[in-house]
Amino acid sequence: MTGVGGDAFIAAVKPLVDAMGGALLPPEEAGPDDVVLAWAGADVVAVRLPQLAESLDHILAALERKQGKPLAELDRKTKQEIVRTLEARGAFSVRHGVETVASALGVSRFTVYNYINYADEQRAKARESGAQPRRRD
Questions:
Q1: Is the distance from CB of 39 to CB of 11 less than 8 angstroms?
Q2: Of 52, 60, 82, 128, which is the most buried if we count CB atoms within 10 A?
Q3: pLDDT 10s digits, 22-76
Q4: Residues paired with 36 in a beta bridge
Q5: Per-domain residue ranges for the chain?
Q6: Which residues is 38 bridged to in the sheet?
Q7: Could you give the CA distance from residue 43 to residue 35 in angstroms, rounded to a whole number?
Q8: pTM above the 0.90 mark?
Q9: CB of 92 within 8 A of CB of 57?
Q10: Distance, C-alpha 61 to centroid of its chain
């Protein structure tokens, strides 16, 4: 997976691929759903992207590491912020996304839907008042 500038290119894209939960592999091992990245006209590395459900698990694990404790142990306000972040990242478009998030947060599906609705209400109020909603991503 190296060549002219290949090592530097791989080092540059690795943090992004890791953050997405993807994997790097030699270009010759790329499958039809993998993305082959080229540098200076030569294929350098292939990226295998995770399935959406795997991405959600990866995002939840990263949020847990960032918080420094299990998500279920967080206070209500922090859980609401996490749901807002996950909604912005498309977590609830994944099949069983609400159930997966509810389980990770230690709340019911109904509570997750309430958090989503609350965030929507806050954004609507901010638009009506002309204020910009605060983002804490």
A1: no
A2: 82
A3: 899 999 999 988 999 999 889 999 999 877 667 888 889 989 999 999 999 999 9
A4: 46
A5: 6-48, 52-129
A6: 43
A7: 10
A8: no
A9: no
A10: 10
